[in-house]
Recover the amino acids of this structure.
């Protein structure tokens, strides 16, 4: 948590820095992940009865409200971007809805989140899928399932049931990307056979949460099967690969601590929901693999952070410490210590 505060201080408390680089220093603030840092701050504020966490969540929320475009969307990329982004808008709306639910006097946050959801509905096609506002134009990634789950959660908080049917159709669309071996097609940041564990887990967690929400047992079973196969692949090599492709062929030249933290959260949720103790054990293993790589140097710019890749020159965020690494580590720790999902 200390590093999260440092990442905000580096930006003058106007958002959390995208990352710290050992080569280039602090980046500009990143609205997308600043948005989903808010539920993490609120959860730990409750756990610690820490007013500083609440105060920072409110400050970040006000900054995000001021960045919203007239259409209701938020831009992609670091602060200063202009191109509307579906994924960023979903993450920020979810964070603002959580803030409004926790702090009822934050009416601007509620109004802003509602406008974001209205824009997301307008940007979706008849099947509920977003084909505009994409990170890579023309490429509809499977990790958008995480946005589906985030929007469902925000809509519940804002009493907007009209989002349910379009998002149920979107869930079916992304679930159709499961292969027979449990891998997911198009689960990477861009077209290609590989998916970093970060985006792969985005997809699996989004599918899991949306399937639980809609009580889609078949899709839940597909997620469980995928995770069991991933665990078996990791067991054979004694650690989780940094990325995977069809057939659960892993790139074991590196591991992705960010993705490992996310997997811990997902495995914990599945174990709690199904009562399968093996998933709780794997949640502990993934968390241990994450904590092992948390930086403990004397440098305040890296102390407490998670690297994108281990070794640091691996292909995911080479030589950088992203703010969402600390976010997902905090989420995994919270889920290990206290029942329930962050947010």
């Amino acid at each position: 948590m200390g590093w999260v505060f440092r990442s905000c201080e580096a930006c003058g408390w106007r958002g959390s820095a995208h990352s710290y680089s050992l080569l280039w220093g602090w980046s500009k603030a990143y609205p997308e992940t600043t948005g989903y840092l808010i539920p993490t701050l609120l959860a730990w504020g409750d756990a610690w009865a820490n007013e500083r966490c609440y105060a920072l969540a409110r400050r970040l929320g006000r900054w995000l409200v001021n960045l919203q475009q007239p259409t209701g969307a938020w831009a992609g990329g670091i602060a200063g971007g202009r191109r509307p982004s579906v994924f960023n808008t979903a993450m920020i709306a979810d964070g603002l809805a959580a803030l409004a639910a926790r702090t009822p006097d934050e009416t601007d946050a509620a109004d802003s989140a509602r406008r974001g959801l209205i824009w997301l509905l307008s940007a979706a096609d008849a099947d509920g899928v977003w084909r505009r506002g994409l990170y890579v134009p023309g490429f509809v990634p499977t990790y958008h399932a995480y946005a589906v789950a985030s929007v469902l959660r925000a809509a519940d908080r804002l009493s907007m049931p009209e989002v349910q049917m379009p998002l149920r159709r979107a869930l079916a669309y992304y679930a159709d990307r499961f292969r027979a071996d449990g891998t997911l097609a198009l689960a990477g940041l861009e077209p290609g056979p590989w998916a970093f564990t970060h985006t792969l887990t985005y997809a699996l967690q989004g599918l899991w949460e949306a399937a639980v929400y809609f009580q889609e047992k078949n899709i839940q079973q597909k997620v469980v099967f995928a995770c069991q196969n991933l665990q078996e692949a990791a067991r054979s090599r004694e650690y989780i690969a940094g990325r995977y492709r069809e057939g659960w062929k892993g790139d074991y030249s590196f591991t992705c601590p960010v993705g490992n933290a996310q997997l811990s959260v997902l495995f914990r949720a599945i174990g709690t929901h199904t009562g399968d103790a093996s998933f709780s054990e794997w949640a502990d293993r993934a968390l241990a693999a994450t904590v092992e790589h948390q930086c403990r140097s004397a440098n305040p710019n890296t102390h407490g952070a998670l690297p994108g890749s281990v070794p640091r020159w691996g292909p995911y965020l080479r030589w950088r410490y992203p703010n969402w690494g600390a976010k997902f580590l905090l989420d995994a720790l919270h889920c290990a210590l206290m029942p329930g999902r962050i947010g």
Observations:
- The longest helix spans residues 217-237.
- The CA atoms of residues 272 and 339 lie 9 Å apart.
